[in-house]
Every structure is written in structure tokens, then in C-alpha cells.
Amino acid sequence: MTSSFRPDFGLTAQDYGRHRAGFPPQLVSYLYRHGIAFPGKDVLDVGTGTGALARLSALAGARVTGLDPAGPLLEQARELDREAGVEADYRVGTAEATGLPDASYDVVTAGQCWHWFDAPKAGAEVRRVLRPGGRVVIAHFDWLPLPDNVVEATEELIRSFNPAWTLGGGTGLYPRWLTDLATSGFTGIETFSFDLEVPYPPGAWRGRIRASAGVGASLPPDEVERFDEALGRLLRDRFPGEVVHVPHRTWAVVATRPQG
């Protein structure tokens, strides 16, 4: 990422583990249609965070290694894996320098994190650890700011507390990642997307936003508390009710490490 904005998600590990919605299970079916099956495969999930994508791969039958620079997030990942009845090998490390052997994985996944990486270094490292013919998946599961919806209002509030945060206004589509993969020598590049709504009770939405890059991962604790109170007021005033329905888009790009 070229921005100097560098959140530390370890600061918000509990909220991150509790409130950030994982990737929808339908993602596995879409990946299967694109030639990526998980049973018996060796999968590396870089930037794993609390293991949302790693856990999905493990539930689908893969042997999974999860890598992240934030140790507190990996502790949350292990706890969530225990609750889900699966297990992955979580290690502290980075996508740019995994420290893992050459050609040791069938699939490398990166969920909700490629924008934090040095893309040329991460692309080269992913290619190095993949077996010939192995597949890479960069996936996102993003809320969608639409006119007058809860996401747009929430993003406006984040910007008022944290002007350095520039990740709002997204469409859930990432065409630059295609160029990153092509530049790193990957072939057979394809994309897909699908939309769905995620229901959040107001308290859970507040927790989800505390766990975001622009709030709990970058603001001082007292500012996080002030923001959370302001978001609570916003929800009560503009979006009352027991649940807010938050539109999301799942998007992924898949590509292949050439043989030889």
C-alpha cells in the first residue's frame, strides 16, 4: 500500500474475532466452479487475521497454514477454530517473506488483506511457495456504501474522527489485483462476485466498526470510545430497530502458477 496509514489490528483483536463477519460459505462453491477444490490440499492463507478464510478452507477439507504478523489475531483464530471444530497451523509471519519452503502449497489464499501488502514482493513470494499449477485466490467480503444506507452514514462518521482513513466509498471490486498477479507471472486470471445482506444487531455493528482499520486499529482508546458512543447515537436516531441489514459483496480473483 502506498498510503502511510498503517493500522494495527492486534489492538482490536477481541472485537475483530467476535464481530467481523467471516466469508460466506458459498465462496467455496464458487471457487470449486473455478477449478479450486480443497479436500486433501495444502493451503496457505496469508494475512489470515482471525482465520476467516483459513477456517473456511479447513472446513472444506484442506490442510491449512495461516500466516499473520499480529499474534493476538492468531490467538483469536485458534479459539474460533476450536469452536468450529477444525484446526489450522497458525504462525506469525508476512506475505512478503513467509519463511516457508519452495513449492509446498497447492493453493495460497489472501482474504481482505492484499491492499496491505507490498504487491510485487507478495506476488513473488506466493509464486515461490506454490507448486507448479497451483492456484492463488485473492478474496474480499466488503460492506457496500449505498445512498443513505447505514454503511454510508457509518463511513462519514469514521472520516469525521479519522481523516487519515481513506478506505471508504468502495465498490467491492479490485481490478488492480489482476495486474499485480499478471505482473508476478500468474496466468489464467479470472474473477467472480456475488452480493448478499448480512444482518447485524446494533451492538454487533458497533463492534464490527470498532474492529475496522479506521477505528480500533488506528485511533487512541479514548477516541475509539467516543466514536463508539457517536455511532450508537447515529444508529438509534437514523437506523432504529433490532437489526440493520448491511449489503455486502464477495469478490475474488483466481490465477494459476504456470507449470515449469
From TrEMBL:
Coiled coil: none annotated. It is an enzyme of class 2 (transferase). The keyword Transferase applies. Its EC number is 2.1.1.-. Residues 44-138 form the Methyltransferase type domain. One of its GO terms (biological process) is methylation. Belongs to the methyltransferase superfamily. This is Class I SAM-dependent methyltransferase. It comes from Streptomyces massasporeus.
